[in-house]
Amino acid sequence: MSDDSAGTRVSVTPCKGGPLLLRGATEIEDEDGQVHPVVRPVVALCRCYRTESPPWCDSSHKTPRRSAGS
Ligand code: FES
Q1: How many Å lie between the centroid of ligand 1 and the Cα of residue 20?
Q2: 29 lies in a domain?
Q3: Does the residue 41 lie in any domain?
Q4: For residues 19 and 43, is the Cβ–Cβ distance under 8 A?
Q5: Residue 47: pLDDT over 70
Q6: Is 48 in the pocket of ligand 1 (CB under 6 A)?
Q7: How far is the CA of 32 from the centre of ligand 1 (A)?
């Protein structure tokens, strides 16, 4: 998926079981409307909702989930 309507190409690449890799963006807006500047050419956006630093992936998706009752 990509969008270059503003003259800058942005691409999104899903990682299987992990984040979305976002290339070329200058900022992203989270679900609460907070705008986060993007200062690196490639950033990883969490899509598992387990990160400690939303909206960014902190690799928490690699940690095994706890089962109910443990
Ligand atoms: S996708 Fe990596 S912490 Fe959520």
Answers
A1: 9
A2: yes
A3: yes
A4: no
A5: yes
A6: yes
A7: 18
* Amino acid in the structure at residue 63: T
pTM: 0.80
Question: How far apart are the C-alpha atoms of 27 and 54, rounded to whole Å?
Answer: 14
Say yes or no to pLDDT of 2 above 90: no
Q: How many domains does the chain fold into?
A: 1
Query: What is the average pLDDT across 57-66?
Result: 92
pLDDT at position 39, please? 94
Q: What is the residue type of 62?
A: K
Give the mutation target among 13, 50, 52, 56 for probing the ligand 1 site: most ligand atoms within 8 A of CB.
50
Task: Give tens-digit pLDDT for 20-36.
Answer: 999 999 999 998 999 99
User: What are φ and ψ of residue 42, in 5° steps?
Assistant: -135, 130
Q: Containing domain of residue 50, as a range?
A: 2-59
Among residues 56, 58, 65, the alpha carbon closest in space to that of 25 is found at 56
